[in-house]
Amino acid sequence: MLKAPRFRTLFTGLILTGSVLIGWGCRPAQRSDLAPQGPLQLWTLQLAPKFNPYMDGVIDAWDRAHPKDPVRWTDLPWGSVERKLLAAVFARTAPDVVNLNPPFAANLASKGGLTDLTPLLPAGAAERYLPSVWQAARDPQAGQIAVPWYLTVRLSLVNRGLLQQAGLEQPPRRWQELPAFARRIRRTTGRYGLFVTVVPDDSAELLESMVQMGVTLLDDRQRAAFNTPEGRRAFAFWSDLYREGLLPREVVSQGQRRAIELYQSGELAVLASGAEFLRSIQTNAPGIAARTEPSPPLTGADGTANVALMTLAVPRQSSRPQQAANLALFLTNAPNQTRFAREARVLPSSRAALQQVLRELEAERPANGQEAQIRQARLLSARTLERARVLVPASPGIKRLQAIIYTQLQRAMLGQISSDQAVTEAARQWNRYAEARWP
């Protein structure tokens, strides 16, 4: 029979992390006469319209192989997914498969909103994925709440011109090297070494740095575990840097966007960002891009880097959880992840796909210097995965924890309280919240 016509409604806008566009789109199911329950509903985040051809191809392949379970695809803007999904759950119209980040997945799982995929997965499914990200999609109480999809790794993008002015050969590789580096840059060039925001609802980079410094954020009962010597050293590390004038004043009031502005204007020696953001620098600040060199990310003493993860989860309301789990596995299989990593310039969570991406990058012969710079950064990102994991636990309320810690750290930076007092107050506020939520 004839296939149903396709339609999409799209609103587009550029986002800063990764290489995807904000958009909303729908793809009607095909062969709906063979699916009396209706199509499987798939929701993704910020893939339309740039990756419509990729998603169409993957879904067409699924529909041909599973004519009784066609897929209807909806793509949502990042800022609306939580509201729309919670509204859909309340109305009992939740999708069968939804693209989530680990913190929101953990929050839904804590309320019983996600399916434990463990009994639905084939034997050996976990072995197909990188162990660290597979574990990050697992909840201690709720089980395997999601399947890993695509990844990004933060690198250090280094302004070699500022390093040369400061007489430095290399950027810092460990957090303990940062203060001396920042002093040298500030003293010799008048610029700043690094920008790490303390705005509560912005980047989690500072929280991740604390974990890299040996801080345990929460214990098994979800109580504060950071009021320790390690936690006090980490709070003092950041408040001392700020009070010494080694961080831009705006870190307490502006987010990661400001770091990008400062780097592109030549005011920052190191920018923590993804490989693909080099393209924006090449476009917006070609002079700075020409002096930029990708370098490994800053880490703690053990060299563990952070990886950002996107997952696919199955809401508990799905009437076909097995078919939904199969769809999640299909979308994240090695061939599909390899192609998506190639087109979106992200990294795959599939072991086989990662090996294929590495082979392709190693064999790539860039046509010009700009493409060579992108290749260098992507290759470094892929190799960084060997020692990367999701550093901040995907615990319910983790964004509240970040807000509490950042707010108290701001007070310490501004001299309103000592860094030790900031640790104590942050722990008190979090525990008060945790005791109410997890008696």
What does this protein look like?
Helix 13 crosses helix 14 (351-363). The strands form four sheets. Strands 3, 4, 5, 6, 9, 13, 14 and 15 form an eight-stranded mixed sheet that branches. The chain has helices at residues 52-65, 81-90, 102-110, 131-136, 160-165, 178-189, 205-212, 229-243, 256-264, 278-284, 286-290, 321-331, 334-344, 351-363, 369-384, 398-413, 419-437; strands spanning 13-14, 21-22, 25-27, 40-45, 71-76, 97-100, 138-139, 143-144, 147-153, 155-159, 270-273, 292-295, 305-313, 347-348, 388-389. A hairpin with a 6-residue loop joins strand 1 and strand 2. It contains 17 helices and 15 strands. The longest helix has 19 residues, at 419-437. Helices cover 43% and strands 14% of the residues. The model is unreliable at 1-25 and 28-35 (pLDDT under 50). It folds into two domains: 13-151 and 309-362, Periplasmic binding protein-like II (D-Maltodextrin-Binding Protein, domain 2, 3-Layer(aba) Sandwich); 153-305 and 391-437, Periplasmic binding protein-like II (D-Maltodextrin-Binding Protein, domain 2, 3-Layer(aba) Sandwich). The protein has 439 residues and is an alpha+beta fold.
